[in-house]
Design goal:
This protein is mainly beta and 104 residues long. Helices cover 10% and strands 26% of the residues. The relative contact order is 0.32.
Length: 104
C-alpha cells in the first residue's frame, strides 16, 4: 500500500471519482463547478434513458430528443482524488474509490 501525505505530514488517502449514476444524477452541475481538473461534463439524455452525448452549449437539444441532462465522467484519469465533487453532490450519486483499492 502506498502512503500519501498532506503538506503537514498527515496521512491522507485520495478517493478517485470513477462513476456517476445516471439514474440518480439530476444534472445540477455542482460537481462540475468545484472540479478544477475537467473530469466530468454534462451530457444529454433522451426519454429512454440513453446518453445522447456532451452538451456543448445552451442550444444543444439533440434534434428535440433531449429530455434531461446528467453529469458523466469523461476523463477519470484527470481526477486527483480530492473529493470536492462528492461533498457538493445533493444526490450522492457518485462512486469514489480509494487509491489503495485501485489496480496498479
Amino acid at each position: 500500500m502506498r502512503t500519501f501525505t498532506t503538506r503537514d505530514g498527515s496521512i491522507w488517502m485520495p478517493s478517485y471519482l470513477t462513476f456517476i449514476d445516471s439514474k440518480t444524477c439530476i444534472g445540477c452541475g455542482r460537481c462540475f463547478k468545484v472540479c478544477s481538473r475537467d473530469v466530468m461534463h454534462l451530457h444529454g439524455v433522451n426519454d429512454a434513458g440513453e446518453i445522447l452525448g456532451p452538451c456543448d452549449d445552451e442550444d444543444d437539444d439533440f434534434d428535440g430528443e433531449l429530455n434531461r441532462m446528467i453529469m458523466v465522467v469523461d476523463d477519470a484519469g484527470r481526477c486527483i482524488g480530492c473529493g470536492a465533487c462528492g461533498r457538493v453532490c445533493p444526490k450522492n450519486c457518485q462512486t469514489h474509490v480509494a487509491a489503495d483499492e485501485l489496480a496498479t
